[in-house]
Specification:
The complex is a heterodimer. Chain A is of the alpha/beta class. Chain A has a single domain (28-51, 68-234), classed as Rossmann fold (3-Layer(aba) Sandwich). Chain A contains 10 helices and 10 strands. In chain A, helix 3 runs parallel beside helix 6 (138-151). Chain A starts with a strand and ends with a helix. Chain B contains 11 helices and 4 strands, in the order ααααβββααααβααα. Chain B is globular, with a radius of gyration of 19 Å. Chain B has one domain (2-226). Chain B is mostly helical. Chain B has a two-stranded antiparallel sheet with strand order 1-4. Classes of the chains: A alpha/beta, B mainly alpha. The A-B interface holds A 49, 51, 70-72, 75-76, 80-83, 87-93, 96, 99-101, 103-104, 132, 134, 148-149, 151-152 and B 170, 173-174, 176-177, 180-181, 183-192, 294, 296-298. Chain A: InterPro entries: AAA+_ATPase, ABC_transporter-like_ATP-bd, ABC_transporter-like_CS, BCAA_Transport_ATP-bd_LivF, P-loop_NTPase. Chain A: GO terms for molecular function: ATP binding; ATP hydrolysis activity; branched-chain amino acid transmembrane transporter activity. Chain A: Belongs to the ABC transporter superfamily.
């Protein structure tokens, strides 16, 4: 299984948000897509999870064509997407938010096992199961969003800016958790981040996007070492 | 004392009806953002179905679920074949915020004239399964009948079933989630389109039950339930338009204000009261008692 994106283009009306993008993410790799605001990072994830249509090209996860069918069906094929901005439902309790991710799963025993795993991963959520989503701190909300995505037992996890709006210490925690999840499971992770340094540090592979085009791609250690990338994207 | 008891009991019975009608409107509004003027027409057509059943079988207890089923089906059809394509096609430009409202008015018109064609505009008597005469205790006759008791108990049971369904079942959770955050729900695997149709169907059933509860003892015509739309909206707005609990409370507040005004002040004021209550709420607390931002109820 691998994520294969070939010649993918996506338009927002007259504006080309993603231009002829091609890359492959191998199974169990953690890949970070970095780039400035408007580089097309969120658009890429939203296209892969079926929220918006592509204009041209191909994208597949294993044998599943990601450009066909609705988002609610993609998740059944092993693709979970945590959208930008702590994607939890504030009106629902923590437990309801988690359960939501597994409602479609037929095997309730397996779903319960996943829930146990998620609560071991995020014990703070376990202490707050009956609280409403909007009573959580920013970091806890992000954990809940990731937890909800894991409840669908994904093979491919798409994460959109998990560090957004979080305090530096919390950002570090979230990144570490993402790395831990990738290390201890079969998950393939595609992480989109404006916090380029933080993301590249935990990633195996880095993809640098600029205005919808790939500028650089390679092992993230190489990208961090590249003076041009450092100057343009890592800020030193 | 008798006055007080009468006013409270009538208020309770009327309030129950308004509450259920408000719930029907809230279920549609919070899941699809449609202010559904057709609700009165849907309830009316469903009540005619109930009337057909009751005249054939002479059994109200078959007519009630039959009407509810018809109401659910009719609502699901309207959502699937009109509102859903409309939301997709008329999603941009000046028409977007009003398209569904105008469409719902259109549906109301179609249902009015359709019912008039099928059943004529002649008023039909809907037999009540219980007495509609005031209950006599000692020498006083209270303006409160067995039919009122039937209304109150049925509405309470229906509300409890809805509450259980929404709070305790998986499908109920999907409905709430899809109402609040359709995109996140989609990403979590909720089939949002399907769930919305179910929301409309539940609303249609609630409206149908209103019609079949309120009509017995009086007459049914294509326009006889239209006034409930007004009361239902006022009750829904009092409750914040999005909250089922708010709808219940809004209905009760409206029912009580109407009955107390008509018994203590003048029955001539009953047409003004709902609008006064509505204006007060809109000016003092425009988001309603349960409405607004973070305080909205799941």
């Amino acid at each position: 299984m691998s994520l294969v994106v070939r010649n993918l283009s996506v338009d927002h009306g007259a504006i080309r948000a993603i231009n002829n993008l091609s890359f492959i993410v191998e199974k169990r790799r953690l890949t970070a897509v970095i780039g400035a605001n408007g580089a097309g990072k969120s658009t890429l994830l939203r296209t892969l999870s079926g929220l918006i249509p592509a204009s041209e090209g191909k994208a597949s996860w294993g044998e599943h064509n990601l450009l066909k069918g609705k988002a609610e069906l993609h998740v059944r094929n092993g693709v979970s997407h945590v959208s930008e901005g702590k994607s939890v439902i504030p009106e629902l309790t923590v437990e309801e938010n988690l359960d939501l991710g597994a409602l479609w799963r037929k095997n309730k025993k397996e779903a319960d096992a996943t829930k146990k795993y998620v609560l071991e991963l995020f014990p703070r959520l376990g202490e707050r199961l009956k609280q409403r989503g909007d009573t959580l701190s920013g970091g806890e909300r992000q954990m809940l969003a990731i937890g909800r995505a894991l409840m669908s037992k994904p093979q491919l996890l798409l994460l959109d800016e998990p560090s957004l709006g979080l305090a530096p210490l919390v950002v570090e925690q979230i990144f570490q958790t993402i790395r831990d999840i990738a290390n201890t499971s079969d998950l393939t992770v595609l992480l989109v981040e404006q916090n380029a340094m933080g993301a590249l540090k935990i990633a195996d592979i880095g993809v640098v996007l600029n205005l919808g085009n790939i500028v650089a791609i390679g092992p993230s250690a190489d990208l961090i070492a590249d003076p041009a990338i450092r100057a343009a994207y890592l800020g030193y | 004392m008798e006055k007080l008891i009468s006013a409270s009991l009538i208020g309770l019975s009327q309030g129950a009806i308004f509450a259920l009608m408000a719930l029907a409107l809230v279920l549609v509004f919070r899941s699809t953002r449609v202010v559904n003027f057709a609700q009165a027409g849907q309830a009316m057509v469903s009540t005619y179905i109930g009337w057909e059943v009751v005249t054939r079988t002479d059994n109200y207890w078959i007519a009630l679920p039959a009407a509810a089923l018809a109401g659910a089906l009719l609502a699901a059809i309207i959502e699937t074949f009109l509102m859903r394509p409309l939301a997709k096609r008329a999603s941009h430009g000046a028409i977007a915020p009003v398209a569904s409202i105008i469409a719902s008015l259109g549906v109301l018109g179609v249902l009015h004239s359709g019912a008039a064609m099928i059943w004529t505009t002649e008023q039909k008597l809907f037999q009540s399964p219980v007495s509609v005469n005031g209950i006599e205790i000692g020498s006083t006759v209270y303006p409160f009948s067995q039919a009122d008791m039937l209304i109150i108990s049925t509405v309470i049971i229906v509300m409890l079933i809805f509450a259980f369904f929404f709070q305790r079942t998986s499908l109920g959770l999907s409905l709430r989630a899809a109402a609040f955050q359709p995109e996140i729900s989609r990403l979590a695997g909720v089939r949002v389109d399907r769930v919305r149709t179910i929301g409309w169907a539940l609303s249609g059933a609630a409206g149908a039950i209103v019609g079949v509860l309120v009509t017995p003892g009086s007459y049914l015509s294509p326009f006889s339930l239209d006034i409930l739309l007004v009361y239902g909206f006022v009750a829904a707005v009092i409750g914040g338009l999005e909250s089922p609990q708010g709808a219940a409370l809004g209905g009760l507040i409206l029912g009580m204000s109407l009955s107390f005004t008509s018994i203590y002040v003048s029955s001539g004021l009953t047409f003004i009261v709902p609008f006064v209550v509505l204006l007060l709420i809109l000016i003092v607390k425009p988001k309603g008692i349960f409405g607004g931002g973070n305080s909205r109820n799941a």
